[in-house]
Amino acid sequence: MLFNSLIFPVFFLIVILVYYQLNLRGQNKSLLLASYFFYGWWDWRFCSLLVFSTILDWYVSHAIDRSDDSRRRKSLLLLSVFGNLGVLGFFKYFNFFAGSMEQLLNAAGFHPDMFTLHIILPMGISFYTFQTMSYTIDIYRRKQRPAENFIGFALYVSFFPQLVAGPIERAKRLLPQLMNRRAFSFENIRGGVPLILFGYFKKIVIADSLAAIVESCFRDPNAYSGLDLLLGVYAFAIQIYCDFSGYTDIARGISKTLGISLMPNFSAPYFSRNITEFWRRWHISLSTWLRDYLYVSLGGNRKGRIRTYMNLMLTMLLGGLWHGAAWTFVIWGGIHGLYLAVHKIILRGVKPEIDAWISNPGAIISDLLKMFLTFNLVSFSWIFFRADSLSDAMQYISGMMHNGGSALFLKPVLFALVASALIDVGQRYSEDYSWLDRWPLYWRYVLSGSLLIASVLVFGWHYSSPTPFIYFQF
Question: N or C: the chain end with fewer CB closer than 10 Å?
């Protein structure tokens, strides 16, 4: 089920009306049933994957916690890791690796008859797989005790607002919230509704309005000028940000109305002044997951400078592959790994203050230039993320450099850039849009109504083919 579908408001209204009439056990059971219904609306057969991950990590986590034998604990952890990654690898990467192997053997002069399968990628499998793995790894590291209630744990794995596109929650943060009854609160409603409205505005009004521009530019770059192709890259940078952060805002807002707090996943990333800061602000739940469970496990920065750069590169390469089964995603991850390594080499241990310009207004121009450079470095990498193949990406880059210079897309891209920047300026220094609380009640209603009306109008315009959230394919 999609947040931007007509059925979802009906579904959520029924859920919330029933939910607040129940005790803790009833609340968790109703949310678990709603989560499986939400996921199974697309294809009920894939609910079996949720069941598999839930049962596997429930039993493995308890067995790890009971054991003091280091070899047995490690074997159990590997059972969980390989079980989860095995399912993820089959559905997401089987055809990718089979096709890549066939190409490699063909290049070497062999012509094997490789086979591929017609595999449908289950929505959200990368997200809930990483979420359950972090739970088991934390128990192995003795940073987390296993859940005592199976229904609560099953809900942790499948909680519908963040099930298909995150944030990737940690058990130590989400599980305790699921172990206590949530009482109805107007404060939660007042806090959740602005998040939902801003999320829909970013997704429907900004991201979906840019989708046609992005699609046309990347489908046939030879048909557009170099300047329009550059604007097409900027359009995708804004589209993917508003699409993904819009989903996160909706998920967090829905959760807040249910009395559950999800972690922030974005913090004005395009206001970052360097690439390291960008990854502290972009897809925070994934970047911290990669840091804590992959980068640290590889040795982090504890084994010398060269090894640190190698660990950064490998982490980002695998992070790129996590996004999709294509070499374009690997290249995208490699570019960011290179960015991070070069930035670390330049800094050599210097740790800049992220908000130093607040106390030093003279540094504003310098910081704006750094933001502009960082945004363009990130935007360049998006070409590989969005292109269907490496050859398409290179064709796009070539077109940007050689195709003359009109500006067909300037106005819509400029509108999207300004609108998203204004939203982020408010959120940058006020978590969850709490700056709205300082506005008079009348103006809050005017803003909320404007966001709702704009989203409904644009949704109606696009409804014949509503645009799915981009990260649903990952």
Answer: N
Q: For residue 405, what are its two tokens? A: 């210079």
Distinct helix (H) and strand (E) counts, the chain: 20, 0
Say what the pTM is. Answer: 0.89
Q: Residues 323, 343, 402, 462: which is the catalytic one?
A: 323
Which is it for the CA torsion 196, 199, 205, 209, positive or negative? negative
DSSP string of 411-461, one letter each residue:
HHHHHHHHHHHHHHHHHHTSGGGGGGGGS-HHHHHHHHHHHHHHHHHHHHH
Overall residue count recorded for the chain in this entry = 474
For residue 330 the two structure tokens come to 């690997």
3-state secondary structure of 234: helix
**Token pair listed for 62:** 């308890």
The closest alpha carbon to 155, from 251, 32, 60, 253, belongs to 32
User: At 250, is the secondary structure helix, strand, or coil?
Assistant: helix
In DSSP notation, 63-88 reads HHHH---HHHHHHHHHHHHHHHHHHH
Q: Is 323 a catalytic residue?
A: yes
Residue of 186, 192, 184 lying closest to 250 (CA atoms): 192
**Among 330, 276, 311, 250, CA closest to 2:** 250
Strand, helix or coil for residue 349: coil
Mean pLDDT by 10 residues, the chain (474 residues): 86 94 93 95 88 95 93 94 90 68 64 61 86 95 93 95 90 93 88 89 90 92 90 95 93 94 92 93 94 90 84 93 89 95 77 49 78 95 94 93 76 89 76 63 69 73 66 70
Place of tokens 């699609």: 215
- How many Å apart are CA 410 and CA 182, to the nearest integer? 47
CA distance 256 to 165: 17
The token duo for 213 is 């521009």
- Delimit the domains of the chain by residue range: 7-184, 189-273+352-473
What is the dihedral sign for C-alpha 167, 174, 51, 24?
negative
